[in-house]
Design goal:
- With 293 residues, this protein is α+β, with helices and mostly antiparallel strands.
- It has 2 domains: 9-99, Aminopeptidase; 128-266 and 282-286, 3-Layer(aba) Sandwich (Aminopeptidase), CATH 3.40.630.30.
- It is built from 9 helices and 15 strands.
- Strands 1, 2, 3, 4, 5, 6, 7, 8, 11, 12, 13, 14 and 15 form a 13-stranded mixed beta sheet that branches.
- Helix 8 (223-234) links the parallel strand 12 (212-219) and strand 13.
């Protein structure tokens, strides 16, 4: 096992992209260049340099105003496992976050560390993947979505703020350059609002992670609108689709399975600090990525 003389946590930036990608590959993940590029630009990333080159570990802190934040991409190189690097990185991150309530998606491997640090489970999340098929109930419905334009960014920010109750503009403003497609919806339950003046009620995006199309975020006033946004995003996609959904909410998991997606992995959403989520979280059907709650 390589020697590790001292743990020194430093800020990472766009210049560390190659090392972050190599760290992902070391842990059996995809390189995730697109995701890492977004995170290194829009969040506070911390890392520990490996004595033999590259990164021994990394973690990402995304701030949503002063009171809320999320953690993602907590990785330690396999050859440096068991040295306390994960705890050192998380302790550094918690100190940096101050009094903010922090959330994260925890794998079964990572959950024991987070529990020792004081994180508590608040809900579950399941990744559904597969080739998307339009369900019988969604066929033939009138168009209820449209592609977003640059002029729609203020409306998207307003929808996101209302759902999360926290300022995620640092991430959301980068969505137009990060995502392949963003759709807006003017759907209400059981009806389509044709007047442009009605304004959008929800939005959703799709982006590619390797050969998989990830649909997220999905922010909508109800499950019908969420289904329409997802269906319209997925209709022309070729290849596997991924949706991260709360399996304990009745609206979408069964529908996703009817559309050809299968549950392949589960994580636990955990919170550090007071858990009283602001905004209307029932509108949040899927995250951008499990690296960002």
């Amino acid at each position: 096992m390589p020697e590790f003389p001292e743990v020194r946590v430093r800020r990472l930036g766009p210049g560390d992209l190659t090392s972050c990608m190599a760290l992902s590959v070391d842990r059996g993940w995809l390189p995730e260049k697109r995701k890492w590029s977004l995170l290194l630009e829009a969040t506070e990333a911390f890392g520990v340099d490996a004595p033999d080159g590259g990164l021994a570990g990394a973690v990402v802190l995304a701030r949503y105003g002063e009171r809320h934040a999320s953690v993602g991409m907590m990785l330690v190189a396999a050859r440096y496992g068991g040295r306390g690097l994960g705890r050192a990185l998380m302790t550094h991150l918690l100190d940096a976050a101050g009094d903010a309530t922090i959330t994260l998606f925890a794998t079964e491997m990572g959950r024991p560390l987070y529990e020792r640090l004081g994180f508590k489970p608040v809900r579950r999340s399941v990744a559904f993947t597969g080739t998307f098929r339009v369900s019988l109930g969604d066929r033939g419905l009138p168009a209820a979505t449209r592609p977003a334009t640059d002029a729609d960014l203020p409306a998207i920010l307003e929808i996101d703020q209302a759902a999360f109750g926290a300022d995620r503009s640092g991430i959301v403003r980068r969505l137009p350059s990060f995502a392949d497609t963003i759709l807006l919806s003017r759907t209400t339950r059981g009806a389509v609002i044709p007047e442009p003046s009605a304004g959008p009620t929800g939005y959703a995006a799709v982006w590619w992670n390797g050969q998989t199309a990830v649909i997220g975020p999905v922010i909508a006033p109800d499950d019908e609108t969420a289904r329409r946004l997802i269906t319209d995003l997925a209709a022309d996609l070729r290849g596997p689709v991924r949706l991260d959904l709360d399996p304990d909410r009745p609206e979408l998991p069964a529908w996703a399975q009817a559309c050809g997606l299968s549950a392949v992995s589960q994580t636990t959403v955990m919170a550090y600090g007071p858990w009283d989520p602001p905004g209307d979280r029932d509108r949040v059907f899927a995250p951008i990525t499990v690296a960002l709650t």
